[in-house]
Amino acid sequence: MTGITNSFNVEKMIQMDMGMYPETAPYRGYVSLIVAQVSNISDATTITIRVCRDQLGDQCIVTDTTSSIFTGLTTATKGSACWALNAFAGVEENDQLFCFIKSNNGSFDLDYLEITWGDNK
Length: 121
Prior knowledge:
The protein is built from no helices and eight strands. By secondary structure, it is mainly beta. A hairpin with a 7-residue loop joins strand 3 (46-52) and strand 4. The chain is globular and about 40 Å long.
């Protein structure tokens, strides 16, 4: 996803399928870590994430949380941000989470967003 700037944009929402079976099963799990890999960093030093139950970003599961961007050792235009949640989360209706991200300044491209989790059994 290209051109992430300093405001949340519902058109740049990242839908995360949490892999429940069947697909209509509600998500219930222990969220450990969220990792964002970014590139084309231009003046951004932090990333703020919001994780929601809905595509419009109105029903938060994880409220706005900021992480520093740690740039690569060989290039300052690529980097990563991580959020350690260590929390149980759930969605009643299905197994979809909707993530929104923004920079503090400038812009970056999101290469991928990954959620590490385990079930609550």
